[in-house]
Amino acid sequence: MTKRDLRSMPHGIEIYADIAIVGGGPAGIAIAREFAGTAIRILVIESGGCEYEAEIQSLNTVENVGEPLIQAATAAQGRGYDGALAWLNDIPAFELRNRMLGGSSHTWIGKCAAFDETDFTLRPWLQLSGWPLERKQLLPMLERAGEILNLGPNRYDESLLALLHTSPDDLRLDRQLLRPFFWQFSHMRYPRAEPTRFSRLAFDITASNVDFLTHATVTQINVTGQGRRVTSLDLASSIGRSATVHADTIVLCGGGIENARLLLASNAVLPAGVGNDHDVVGRYLCDHPRTSLCRFTGSDIDMIARHFNFYGLKHTGRTHFYLRGLSLSPDIQRQESLTNCAAYPVQIHAQNDPWAALKRLTKGVGTTLKGDLLTVARSTDMVACGLYDRLVRKRGLPHRSTELRFDVMAEQQLNSESRITLSQRRDRFGQPLARINWKIGTPEIASVKRLALIISDEFARVGLPTPQLPDWIIADADSDATFMDMAHPSCTTRMGTAPRTSVVDANAMVHGVDGLFIAGSSVFPTPGHANPTLMLLALAIRLADHLKERHQSVRPYNVRVSESDLSFHQG
């Protein structure tokens, strides 16, 4: 693997590759890994570098004209981060993206889940629902994605219970209303506590056929005169250096916002943009509207945490922990025309929580060393019980908390008016900003409210503490609901069989544009409620398999570069 910086290369250089990947985030790096050691020359193009740079991050600025609308309330709502990641709550909507090698993996917490079977099916009450793929077709790719993420078995429903070291109690909740749902968390193998950082996976690629080009922002996708074949990419750097990349195949891996913006802004040949014959690029913008669903305080916290916490299992010699939550059953979704959504527990630890104090002590952070030592010394029984739960029972640690809440992320119904267009404002490269008009619809608000009310009623029925519900749910005042994006933009270049309602086909190639492919959450036909990384990696791996077959019959480019020592070409 060779890593070069466009800023240090000759101005106007022409670079040749077999496959050019635009974006060095999880999707782009996953595809590059699949080609490591093959005869196919791969070039990964990244707008940023290897570290955070404010100048480059400013290219993520958007013009937001849609949700979230209630600014004061939404600012308080945030995205649910706390502790060292609390600053992520303050990033404006749709600007929580990372222009640097590794992409979004620099600011995620590793939370993973696969989409449900119901997400892939045709649901008559949700327009344009149904995927052109069956879930079972993606199972092998989910397993391969799980290996990249160091995950345990890809089980997220009741089928996981039989695998757990000690299963949670059966609360006898009505399965016609609620179903258990689980999430697991991706970690680096070393250090174990850190979420998977794809920049490290990129540096682990040692194959000579994979190259990385940093500080190279793509400003235009070039196509033939009729726009039916992709030919090259125009690149620019912050110091005025430019380049052109020629490739037989180009894969856009820039994320749910940038993939659409780049297609729309590439209008030198086609005024509406590349792949936008039917004005679909940028439409159907979805995210995961997030809000706090219900709260527990006082002694109720421990009673709920006993049942909704982490549960572990052994897999390939390692212990993997899954977080237990609740989702709307497919039955109630069908009966009441609801979208898929799920709630997960979040504990706010007290200052005198011994495990939080131990974490601060081991990491050398915090301002009260003496206070943390006293907290641990005064909590020996709690620490001993926690070690037993963790090491023997494979359960989550007991915490001293001030609050336990259930947060929810909801699937959105597709809305063609929820969309990305081009702003009149421009960035430093003269490119139009993305104009975001995110719309949260009645079905997802109704689904969130219904989930809260069912949880409240069912907990009371089985003898669990009754939660405190938000005022807007108690008052049945949907207009007072406050949501925030979760930096999970999707569906803006959705996959489908009909060009009038989709941008890419079932192989992720842009309709009518040979050689131009898209990977990432922007190709999701529908967004589900689950965090997107695991699913987008599975689709990226599937695309890599397709491209390997495609390039078996493609003649590679000859050597043609301005500087013979650059080696960004087929040798």
Automatic annotation (TrEMBL):
Belongs to the GMC oxidoreductase family. SUPFAM superfamilies: FAD/NAD(P)-binding domain. Residues 206-289 form the Glucose-methanol-choline oxidoreductase N-terminal domain. This is Choline dehydrogenase-like flavoprotein. Keywords: FAD, Flavoprotein, Oxidoreductase. Pfam families: GMC_oxred_C (PF05199), GMC_oxred_N (PF00732). Residues 416-540 form the Glucose-methanol-choline oxidoreductase C-terminal domain. Its cofactor is FAD. GO terms for molecular function: flavin adenine dinucleotide binding; oxidoreductase activity, acting on CH-OH group of donors. InterPro entries: FAD/NAD-bd_sf, GMC_OxRdtase_N, GMC_OxRtase_C, P2Ox-like. Signal peptide: none annotated. It comes from Rhizobium lusitanum.
